[in-house]
């Protein structure tokens, strides 16, 4: 499909399908996990068909998330390393929060906030996997000594907390920055959006397009 | 369940459980290890009363049979051969099973409301209907007691025959014990009896005899009289100073309200930020449409479309 001239493709159909599958799986994981974390959230275990089903399904969903997440994360590592102007952008976090975007330096495809979300999830989901396998009954927990299971249980709770807070921030940022939800549902952003929020990426994309158009 | 109005602690419950009928004495089972002959009658009585039948196992070269607690074997005699410094052999036999802690690690760790309860008389009971099979009780227990059944994925352990005790009877193992090694009564009476027995053992030359009622878990409702109370580990790994692991304490203690609150505050901060600072609106496509460089109203920080002077 040909994109209208004033649009840039930001996320491929595969990226989008992966993202929204992960989003649903993450929500189910977070709700069922919170149910086991604090009695106040126990009622959330019904989102997976009751507490026993939640206990059974939660770890399998966790594996699904791990596969989807790292398949995606592996393809986006380079874009999430520290880039040009990132440090300056992070220093001006006050301007970012106050929406004084005109004062910010141009940055690449992802800004430092997005990179922080990326790395926070790369680390917390890895910890959730390792600790989760150690806690997983009836399949794996029996192979581990109880003191290790205790440590894993605490680590699982703390990592899940980090992941959930990260996702809350991620969701809010999507609501905050108009145009970004459409980029993940439809895949495109306007040129103006790209120049405004990700100047270096916009320049890079536009140059690539120009090169393509030259015979 | 009959015992539904004398519950002093209930798993995963933040309000006070029903406990109007709590004017009862704390009970205790006293196991005098020095009088045990290892006959396993208690194991049989436990199976009979509780309608449990374990699989026939294999001999591992010891008298332990079965070799470990299971979902169907709630009590097991553990035999250990200990060589003293003088070169004598001591055959130490300990009836293992739930200790019914005053501060139960299983109940602390359990995420299922009401799956584990503690009655006013001190008995810690599993209400298996509410069990979800997560195994957190195993993680929380300082004595490695609960076992999950492979058949139904529910956790099981000694109930201290809560059904019998509720009807004014002693636990099945107590009733059957041929040497009166196991006794049952109020905790107060059992402590008095244990003290007397410790005195007897000391008179017999067991200088380190003592009562095992570990304070780290608030005391237990199953107590031992040990001839070597200075070294409980000698009795097939009975922990010297059991307590709920600090890891479990952190997992099930302060982290729960603190982390829950931070998640809520983060979401709330988002709401407040949106309401005060507003969104980053989609930038206008100035280049394409050749519009004037007039800043959009929202970037001015107030509603520019509204006539001045109408603010108040």
TrEMBL record, chain A:
<keyword id="KW-1003">Cell membrane</keyword>
<feature type="domain" description="Cytochrome b561 bacterial/Ni-hydrogenase">
    <location>
        <begin position="10"/>
        <end position="187"/>
    </location>
</feature>
<feature type="transmembrane region" description="Helical">
    <location>
        <begin position="116"/>
        <end position="136"/>
    </location>
</feature>
<feature type="transmembrane region" description="Helical">
    <location>
        <begin position="148"/>
        <end position="177"/>
    </location>
</feature>
<dbReference type="GO" id="GO:0009061">
    <property type="term" value="P:anaerobic respiration"/>
</dbReference>
<keyword id="KW-0249">Electron transport</keyword>
<comment type="similarity">
    <text>Belongs to the formate dehydrogenase gamma subunit family.</text>
</comment>
<dbReference type="GO" id="GO:0008863">
    <property type="term" value="F:formate dehydrogenase (NAD+) activity"/>
</dbReference>
<keyword id="KW-0472">Membrane</keyword>
<dbReference type="GO" id="GO:0046872">
    <property type="term" value="F:metal ion binding"/>
</dbReference>
<feature type="transmembrane region" description="Helical">
    <location>
        <begin position="20"/>
        <end position="44"/>
    </location>
</feature>
<keyword id="KW-0479">Metal-binding</keyword>
<dbReference type="GO" id="GO:0005886">
    <property type="term" value="C:plasma membrane"/>
</dbReference>
<protein>
    <submittedName>
        <fullName>Formate dehydrogenase subunit gamma</fullName>
    </submittedName>
</protein>
<dbReference type="InterPro" id="IPR011577">
    <property type="entry name" value="Cyt_b561_bac/Ni-Hgenase"/>
</dbReference>
<dbReference type="GO" id="GO:0015944">
    <property type="term" value="P:formate oxidation"/>
</dbReference>
<dbReference type="GO" id="GO:0036397">
    <property type="term" value="F:formate dehydrogenase (quinone) activity"/>
</dbReference>
<dbReference type="InterPro" id="IPR006471">
    <property type="entry name" value="Formate_DH_gsu"/>
</dbReference>
<keyword id="KW-0812">Transmembrane</keyword>
<keyword id="KW-0349">Heme</keyword>
<dbReference type="InterPro" id="IPR016174">
    <property type="entry name" value="Di-haem_cyt_TM"/>
</dbReference>
<dbReference type="GO" id="GO:0009055">
    <property type="term" value="F:electron transfer activity"/>
</dbReference>
UniProtKB/TrEMBL annotation, chain B:
<feature type="binding site">
    <location>
        <position position="98"/>
    </location>
    <ligand>
        <name>[4Fe-4S] cluster 3</name>
    </ligand>
</feature>
<dbReference type="InterPro" id="IPR051555">
    <property type="entry name" value="FDH_Electron_Transfer_Unit"/>
</dbReference>
<dbReference type="GO" id="GO:0046872">
    <property type="term" value="F:metal ion binding"/>
</dbReference>
<feature type="binding site">
    <location>
        <position position="101"/>
    </location>
    <ligand>
        <name>[4Fe-4S] cluster 3</name>
    </ligand>
</feature>
<feature type="domain" description="4Fe-4S ferredoxin-type">
    <location>
        <begin position="27"/>
        <end position="55"/>
    </location>
</feature>
<feature type="binding site">
    <location>
        <position position="36"/>
    </location>
    <ligand>
        <name>[4Fe-4S] cluster 1</name>
    </ligand>
</feature>
<keyword id="KW-1003">Cell membrane</keyword>
<feature type="domain" description="4Fe-4S ferredoxin-type">
    <location>
        <begin position="89"/>
        <end position="121"/>
    </location>
</feature>
<feature type="binding site">
    <location>
        <position position="134"/>
    </location>
    <ligand>
        <name>[4Fe-4S] cluster 4</name>
    </ligand>
</feature>
<dbReference type="GO" id="GO:0015944">
    <property type="term" value="P:formate oxidation"/>
</dbReference>
<dbReference type="GO" id="GO:0051539">
    <property type="term" value="F:4 iron, 4 sulfur cluster binding"/>
</dbReference>
<feature type="region of interest" description="Disordered">
    <location>
        <begin position="277"/>
        <end position="312"/>
    </location>
</feature>
<dbReference type="InterPro" id="IPR015246">
    <property type="entry name" value="Formate_DH_TM"/>
</dbReference>
<feature type="binding site">
    <location>
        <position position="131"/>
    </location>
    <ligand>
        <name>[4Fe-4S] cluster 4</name>
    </ligand>
</feature>
<feature type="binding site">
    <location>
        <position position="39"/>
    </location>
    <ligand>
        <name>[4Fe-4S] cluster 1</name>
    </ligand>
</feature>
<keyword id="KW-0249">Electron transport</keyword>
<dbReference type="InterPro" id="IPR006470">
    <property type="entry name" value="Formate_DH_bsu_Proteobacteria"/>
</dbReference>
<dbReference type="InterPro" id="IPR038384">
    <property type="entry name" value="Formate_DH_C_sf"/>
</dbReference>
<dbReference type="Pfam" id="PF13247">
    <property type="entry name" value="Fer4_11"/>
</dbReference>
<feature type="binding site">
    <location>
        <position position="106"/>
    </location>
    <ligand>
        <name>[4Fe-4S] cluster 3</name>
    </ligand>
</feature>
<dbReference type="InterPro" id="IPR014603">
    <property type="entry name" value="Formate_DH_Fe-S_su"/>
</dbReference>
<feature type="binding site">
    <location>
        <position position="158"/>
    </location>
    <ligand>
        <name>[4Fe-4S] cluster 2</name>
    </ligand>
</feature>
């Amino acid at each position: 499909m040909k994109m209208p001239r004033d649009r840039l493709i930001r996320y491929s159909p595969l990226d989008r399908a992966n993202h929204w599958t992960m989003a649903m799986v993450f929500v189910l994981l977070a709700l069922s996990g919170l149910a086991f974390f604090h009695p106040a959230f126990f009622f959330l275990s019904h989102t997976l068909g009751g507490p026993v089903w939640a206990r059974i399904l939660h770890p399998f969903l966790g594996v699904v998330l791990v596969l989807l997440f790292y398949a995606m994360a592996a393809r986006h590592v380079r874009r999430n390393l520290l880039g040009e102007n990132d440090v300056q952008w992070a220093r001006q976090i006050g301007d970012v929060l106050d929406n004084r975007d005109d004062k910010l330096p141009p940055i690449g495809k992802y800004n430092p906030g997005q990179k922080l979300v990326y790395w926070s999830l790369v680390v917390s989901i890895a910890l959730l996997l390792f600790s989760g396998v150690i806690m997983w009954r009836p399949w794996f927990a029996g192979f581990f000594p109880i003191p290790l299971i205790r440590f894993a249980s605490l680590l699982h709770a703390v990592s899940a907390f980090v992941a959930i807070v990260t996702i809350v921030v991620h969701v809010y940022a999507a609501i905050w920055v108009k145009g970004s939800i459409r980029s993940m549902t439809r895949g495109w952003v306007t040129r103006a959006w790209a120049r405004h929020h990700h100047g270096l990426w916009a320049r890079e994309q536009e140059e690539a397009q120009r090169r393509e158009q030259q015979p | 369940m009959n015992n539904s109005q004398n519950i002093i602690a209930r798993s995963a419950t933040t309000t006070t459980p029903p406990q109007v009928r709590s004017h009862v004495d704390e009970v205790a089972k006293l196991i005098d290890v020095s009088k045990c002959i290892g006959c396993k009658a208690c194991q049989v009585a436990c199976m009979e009363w509780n309608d449990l039948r374990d699989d026939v196992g294999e001999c591992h070269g010891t008298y332990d049979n079965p070799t470990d607690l299971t979902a169907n074997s709630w009590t097991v005699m553990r035999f250990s051969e200990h060589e003293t410094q003088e070169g004598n052999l001591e055959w130490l036999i300990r009836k293992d099973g739930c200790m019914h802690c005053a501060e139960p690690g299983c109940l602390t760790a359990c995420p299922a409301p009401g799956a584990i309860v503690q009655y006013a008389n001190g008995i810690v009971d599993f209400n298996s209907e509410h069990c979800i099979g997560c195994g957190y009780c195993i993680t929380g227990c300082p004595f490695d007691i609960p076992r999950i059944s492979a058949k139904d994925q529910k956790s099981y352990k000694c109930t201290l025959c809560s059904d019998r005790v509720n009807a004014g009877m002693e636990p099945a193992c107590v009733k059957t014990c041929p040497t009166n090694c196991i006794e049952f009564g109020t905790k107060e009476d059992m402590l008095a009896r244990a003290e007397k027995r410790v005195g007897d053992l000391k008179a017999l030359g067991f200088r380190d005899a003592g009562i095992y009622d570990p304070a780290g878990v608030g005391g237990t409702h199953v107590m031992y009289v040990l001839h070597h109370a200075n070294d409980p580990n000698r009795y097939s790994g009975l922990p010297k100073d059991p307590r709920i692991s600090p890891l479990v304490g952190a997992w099930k203690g302060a982290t729960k309200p603190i982390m829950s609150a931070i998640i809520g505050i983060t979401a709330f901060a988002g709401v407040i930020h949106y309401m005060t600072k507003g969104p980053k609106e989609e930038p206008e496509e100035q280049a394409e449409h050749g519009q004037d460089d007039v800043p959009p109203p929202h970037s001015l920080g107030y509603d520019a479309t509204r006539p001045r002077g109408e603010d108040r």
